[in-house]
TrEMBL record:
Keywords: Cell inner membrane, Cell membrane, Membrane, Transmembrane, Transmembrane helix
Domain of life: Bacteria
InterPro entries reported in the protein's UniProt record: PqiA-like (IPR007498), PqiA-like_proteobact (IPR005219), PqiA-PqiB_transport (IPR051800)
One Pfam family recorded for the sequence: PqiA
Places the protein is found: Cell inner membrane
Family membership noted in the UniProt record: Belongs to the PqiA family.
Regions crossing the membrane: 47-64, 94-121, 142-161, 167-188, 258-278, 304-330, 351-370, 376-397
GO (cellular component) term, any one: plasma membrane
Organism annotation: Rugamonas aquatica
Recorded topology in the membrane: Multi-pass membrane protein
The protein's name in its UniProt record: PqiA/YebS family transporter subunit
Keyword Secreted among record annotations: no
Length: 418
């Protein structure tokens, strides 16, 4: 069995022999039931066409107004980039930068890289920078949050209906279409593109000696492209296919997870106590915290939206902190307690982590829309910065934690792992 026949589970490290699967089928790990890879049509022409359409939709969504408000003849509209500029002008540069990264830059990186790669593969050539571009796609997918932004836009529109006449603009429909297109684009597995590029002419890294796997072979799996390599602990090892640094386990995984969790826990208190928005109107100045926003939606007849914001902004961060603390503690103690359940818990934390940004996106759009001169103006408060930091830190904590540490103390019963 050779390296290209092997695949390592990213959640538990169990080794499997790669087998072909039909479109829409999934190959799962026999030990932790994690999805190893999916069976999809390897039609590069289809991938390039959908990616190109998504890029045009992305440009429309960024350049066109999303919604327009009308209050007594005063009108106000906002694009996403315009909303980010307003945050920047209000000395919220950190929040503005993070919103720009998650909703503009990283989705653009993913779509641009995929288009470049798929067009080149369509021509039968492995393009320059092939390995760096596919690694960029993987990184951008972990942080891009277009679907969260779309829900934030809808919540903002509902919130504004009680303040002004709301008129939807082309940007709203473009973001809706973009969300659906990106769901299709995400189904394109970068590892499939790696495999296609392996057999095409073009620049590539120097070939490394092939090895034949035996039960005694110590292996390490690449986190970027999934290639299994022979582990060489004494050497500074890089993946032969994509150039990423190889580690059998993430260095200092538990220590870094604890550091991010501690910082997030400290900032969670001011994130909920400090105002996230200030409202200046003819009736005076009003401070709004995350809790007061939940109460507002509940008392204004929108209990569903109140529940969404409460879960995303209050419940999810607390549960993430508790769950990651449990995972880090048990991994540090090399506990054998319920490894499958702990792995499932880790997957849930990874999935829901991004949805806590929902409140930040609502604040971003609200601040940009409510600009009615002396009638009413809404500005961002320090609580928004603290809450944004909590979300980013908890996501970093989950990314630093290596779920394979859960399974390391478990008796493998003769199974091999990477």
């Amino acid at each position: 069995m050779y390296r290209y026949d092997l695949i390592s589970c990213h959640d538990c490290g169990a080794l499997h022999k790669r087998r072909p699967v039909l479109p829409r089928e999934k190959a799962r790990c026999v030990r932790c039931r994690s999805i190893l890879y999916r069976g999809i049509h390897s039609d590069v022409n289809r991938m390039a066409a959908i990616t190109l359409a998504a890029i045009f939709t992305f440009l429309i969504a960024q350049l066109c107004p999303i919604v327009e408000l009308d209050v007594g003849g005063y009108t106000s509209s906002a694009t996403l980039l315009g909303a980010i500029r307003v945050l920047w002008a209000e000395q919220m540069q950190v929040v503005a930068t993070i919103v720009f990264l998650f909703t503009v830059l990283l989705p653009a990186v993913e779509l641009g890289s995929l288009l470049y790669v798929t067009l080149a593969l369509r021509s039968g050539v492995r393009p320059h920078g092939f390995d760096h571009l596919l690694r960029a796609v993987g990184a951008a997918r972990r942080w891009g949050m277009t679907e969260v932004l779309m829900i934030g836009i809808l919540i903002t529109i509902v919130k504004m209906t009680s303040l002004a006449q709301v008129m939807v603009q082309p940007g709203l429909f473009a973001f809706g279409a973009l969300t659906l297109m990106l769901a299709i684009v995400v189904s394109f597995d970068p590892q499939m593109l790696w495999n296609i590029g392996e057999h095409l002419p073009g620049p590539r890294r120097p070939a490394q000696a092939e090895f034949r796997y035996t039960p005694r072979t110590r292996l390490a799996a690449c986190h970027s492209c999934g290639l299994v390599a022979q582990d060489q602990p004494a050497a500074h090892q890089h993946c032969a296919r994509c150039g990423a640094v190889l580690h059998r386990r993430r260095p200092d995984s538990v220590g870094r997870t604890w550091a991010f969790l501690l910082a997030a826990t400290i900032l969670y208190i001011p994130a909920n106590l400090l105002p996230v928005m200030y409202t200046h109107s003819l009736f005076g100045k009003e401070d709004d915290t995350i809790i007061s926003g939940v109460v507002y939606f509940w008392t204004s007849g929108s209990p569903a939206l109140a529940a969404i914001i409460f879960i995303a902004s209050i419940v999810v961060p607390v549960l993430k902190l508790a769950a990651l603390s449990l995972l880090a503690f048990t991994a540090q103690r090399r506990s054998r307690w319920r490894p499958l359940q702990r792995t499932i818990l880790y997957r849930i934390v990874e999935f829901v982590g991004r949805w806590s940004m929902l409140d930040i996106f609502v604040i971003t759009l609200t601040v940009a829309l409510v600009r009615f001169q002396s009638l009413a103006v809404i500005t961002a408060g320090p609580g928004a910065l603290a809450f944004c930091a909590v979300v980013v830190l908890t996501m970093l904590a989950s990314m630093q934690f290596d779920p394979r540490l859960i399974w390391d103390p478990i008796d493998s019963n003769g199974e091999n792992h990477a």
